[in-house]
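Dear colleagues,

For the upcoming journal club I promised to circulate an example of a predicted protein-ligand complex. I picked one with zinc ion because it came up in last month's discussion. The inputs are reproduced below in full, followed by the predicted structure.
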Amino acid sequence: MGLKRVELAPGVYHLQGGSNMGLVVQDGRGLLVDSGLDKDAARRALRLAEEAGAELAAIFITHAHADHFGGAYLVQRRTAARLYAPALEGAMMEHPILEPLYLFGGAAPIGELRHKFTLAKPCRVDSTVEAGPQEMGSFQVEVVPLPGHSPNQMGLAVGEVLFCADALFPAATLAKHGIPFCSDLDAMLATLARLPEMEYAYFAPGHGPAYRSGAEIAAACAANRERLMEIRALIYDGLTGPRPTGELVRAVADHFGLRLAGATFYLLAQTTILAALASLERAGEVAATVEGNRLLWRRTAPQS
Ligand SMILES: [Zn+2]
C-alpha cells in the first residue's frame, strides 16, 4: 500500500497509508511519528523524508502496537535517528513478544499471534518521554497523553497539528470492525472527551484522514464514545444471569453483525470486552466470580 503525503502545516506531513505516520521537516532535519507495520512501510517513509530533503534526526512512537512500530527497526538500521517512546509502551517495543503474550492471556502465544500484525521486530528506545513540552532532536514538540486504546499511548503536537495516534477511529473502521481495540475503557472515554477541547487546528490519527478542529473532530470523537458506551451497555444488559466472558464476546459481535475471522480477531475483540467489564467492575456494577470452576460475570447493583 502506498503512502499519501498530506501537508497539514508548512513542513508538517500526515503520511496516510494502512497505518499512518507523521513527518516533520525543518532546516533539512526530519522527525518521524510512528514507523508503519513493517520494513516496506518504513522504506516508503524514508523515501518521502529523502524527497523532502530531510535527514531523520528523531522518531517518536506513539504506542506499542505492531502496526505502528513494526518498521522502526529498519529506520534505526538506516538512519542515526534517536527513538523516543512513552514509558511502558517503550518496554513493549523493546520486548515485542509482550503484545501476543498479553493477547494470549500471558501464555506463550499460538503461531497465529506470531504474525507481524501482532508480533513486531524489536527496536531500541533511546529516550522514554513524559508528557509536556520538550525538545526532540532539535524539534520543539509537546507530548500529549492519550491513554485508553493502549495503556500509555501518547500523541505528539507540532505547532497546530496533533498526531493523535489511535485515540479515535474513522467511521468506516467503526462500521467494519464494530469493536474498536481498547485496553482501558474509562481512560479511552476520557481521552475522547478531552481531545476536541484541545486547541489544535488538525488532528492527525493513526488510521484514516486528518480531522479539523471544531465540529469535525468533535463528531468523530462522539461516534467513538458512543460505540464504546454501546458496548459497555450491551454487556451490562446481557448479564441477565451469570455469564462467562466468551458469551459476552459473542453477544457483542453478533449485535454488530461481525464474523470474527480467526483467533487474532477474536482475542482483539475479547480485550475490548474485558476492558468494558473492568469499567463496569470499577463502577461497582458487575463482579467476577468463580462458580463450579467457571469464571462468571454477574451484576452487583440491585435492579430497579
Ligand atoms: Zn493501535
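Two points we might discuss: The pocket of zinc ion is lined by residues 63, 65, 68, 149-150, 166 (CB under 6 Å). The chain has a mean pLDDT of 96.

See you all on Thursday,
B. R.
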